[in-house]
Design brief:
38% of the residues lie in helices and 24% in strands. By secondary structure, the protein is of the alpha+beta class. It has one domain: Gcn5-related N-acetyltransferase (GNAT) (Aminopeptidase, 3-Layer(aba) Sandwich). The N and C termini lie far apart (42 Å). The structure holds coenzyme A. The site of coenzyme A has 20 residues, from helix 1, strand 4, helix 4 and helix 5.
């Protein structure tokens, strides 16, 4: 298995993997998400070009078996820490036939290493139950936040 940095050419794959996460972890069907796939594809394409999104693709014999991304966004610098960027781990997905072989762990390691190299102030994520133990291994801890959504409707 190899892990490589995603390029603009992977935008469709990343969108498909994001849809697969939603199908598996929420009430959506793949058919319902079809109209959203070009939206996600274009988002990844644009944000990778702007460097506000970075993703990694895991491959086995040249076939993509998983991916995951890092969304980088503006934040207010904390006292004693000059960076004005924070990060969010997004859309970590591994195809069912490649699971429990450490693929997600390897992807997340790349994401965390990149976040450190980018000097991000913090890295957050919304874990699924299956992924919670893995994130804890990396040092992620529960954080107390509130959320109001969807504000756009
Ligand atoms: C969650 C997911 C990414 C894990 O991928 P994976 O490649 O199988 O994960 P790994 O093999 O790297 O497992 C790392 C650790 O995560 C935990 N883990 C992974 N899958 C698990 C499961 N189904 N149940 C319980 N723990 C699990 C274990 O602690 C595991 O370590 P271990 O195998 O040494 O016990 C994959 O099942 C998936 O794509 N699920 C659907 C989408 C999703 O939930 N994404 C996570 C978004 S936060």
């Amino acid at each position: 298995m190899t892990i490589r940095r995603a390029t603009a050419a992977d935008s469709e794959l990343l969108a498909e993997h994001r849809a697969a996460v939603w199908v598996e972890t929420d009430h959506w069907t793949h058919a319902e998400l079809q109209p959203q796939i070009p939206v996600w594809r274009d988002f990844f394409h644009r944000c990778m070009a702007e460097d506000s999104y970075a993703a990694f693709v895991a491959e086995q014999s040249g076939i993509a078996i998983g991916s995951g991304g890092l969304l980088v966004y503006l934040t207010i610098p904390r006292p004693g820490f000059g960076s004005d960027r924070a990060g969010r781990v997004q859309s970590v997905y591994v195809v069912p036939q490649a699971r429990r072989r450490g693929v997600a762990r390897a992807i997340v390691r790349h994401i965390v290493d990149l976040a450190r190299r980018k000097n991000l102030t913090s890295l957050v994520l919304h874990p699924t139950e299956a992924a919670r133990a893995m994130y804890a291994e990396f040092g992620f801890e529960p954080a107390d936040e509130m959320m109001l959504r969807p504000l756009g409707d």
